[in-house]
Design a protein that fits this description.
This protein is mostly helical. About 95% of the residues lie in helices and about 0% in strands. The protein starts with a helix and ends with a helix. Keywords: Coiled coil.
Length: about 290
């Protein structure tokens, strides 16, 4: 009886010692697994923060890309507006050239009309001189076979007319002088009116030429300014396209990093799940040993 009880007590001591050691080992291993799990959770939290930061950067990059696209569209609209304004200025310049040509044709016509009026006045004066010479010639070349009475009557009539014409010509208020003066005054008035018209037309043409010159200068200035604007817009467009390409590359690299981070996150979650299952199995076996 004593031997049996002693051996039983030794067996109980040995089994208690081994069970305590197993519990301590399991506890230490559980603590180690818990620490490893905490480290994995920290790593998971940092990866999630990195992932959210990358997603935030991706959103900001996408927003900036949209703003660059809007800016690019606005630049294209401004370039189209500048091209339309340049075409309008060219059309205006063409219409001004056409008006100048028409004015020059009008001036030529007015000068031709003035020359014709002056030629008509000279022709009328020559005609009056020829008529006067013809009258004198007819008076001096009366036919010799006419009767003396006719000659006397003709002489009296011619003398009377001569006297009347002489008196009329000597009188500054005579009908012939007044008619000639009125015709001369009318012709002078027409000539002066034509000269005034020509002067006004020339002045108008000069103003139009000055306006045309100023418009050409303005067009040249506008063209230079528009060329500078177009160059600046092209530079901005080139910079925007380069920035767009750079952002596209950055987005591509961010997407690759995001995919890598997601893979690491999945693998971390899988490893964390495997570790927890191992701890549960070891704890179950320990408790089963204790029950036995």
């Amino acid at each position: 009886m004593s031997n049996f009880s002693a051996s039983e007590i030794g067996t109980q001591d040995t089994s208690g010692f081994s069970l305590t050691k197993a519990v301590e080992d399991v506890s230490q291993h559980g603590c180690a697994q818990t620490e490893a799990l905490k480290e994995k959770q920290k790593t998971l939290i940092s990866l999630q923060a990195t992932l959210s930061e990358v997603e935030k950067k991706g959103g900001m990059a996408e927003q900036e890309l949209r703003s660059k696209v809007r800016e690019f569209l606005m630049l294209e609209g401004e370039m189209e507006h500048l091209e339309r304004q340049t075409r309008v200025l060219h059309d205006r310049c063409a219409s001004i050239r056409k008006e100048n040509t028409e004015l020059q044709i009008g001036i030529s016509e007015e000068e031709e009309n003035a020359r014709k009026a002056l030629a008509g006045f000279n022709a009328y004066r020559n005609k009056m001189e020829v008529h006067r010479a013809a009258v004198l010639h007819a008076a001096s070349q009366t036919e010799a076979h006419k009767e003396l009475e006719e000659k006397r009557a003709l002489v009296r009539m011619l003398t009377q007319k001569k006297e009347e014409l002489k008196v009329d010509l000597e009188d500054p208020n005579g009908n012939t002088v007044q008619m000639a003066k009125s015709e001369i005054d009318a012709l002078k008035g027409e000539i002066s009116l034509m000269r005034e018209t020509i002067a006004k037309t020339r002045e108008k043409v000069q103003k139009e030429l000055d306006t045309h010159t100023q418009i050409k200068k303005d067009i040249e200035i506008q063209n230079r300014r528009y060329e500078a604007i177009v160059k600046r817009l092209r530079c901005q467009l080139s910079r925007a396209q380069a920035a767009h390409r750079q952002m596209s590359e950055d987005v591509y690299h961010m997407e690759r990093e995001l995919a890598q981070l997601k893979g690491q996150l999945v693998s971390s979650q899988d490893s964390a799940g495997g570790c927890s299952e191992t701890i549960e199995l070891r704890a179950t076996s320990a408790w089963c040993g204790m029950g036995s």
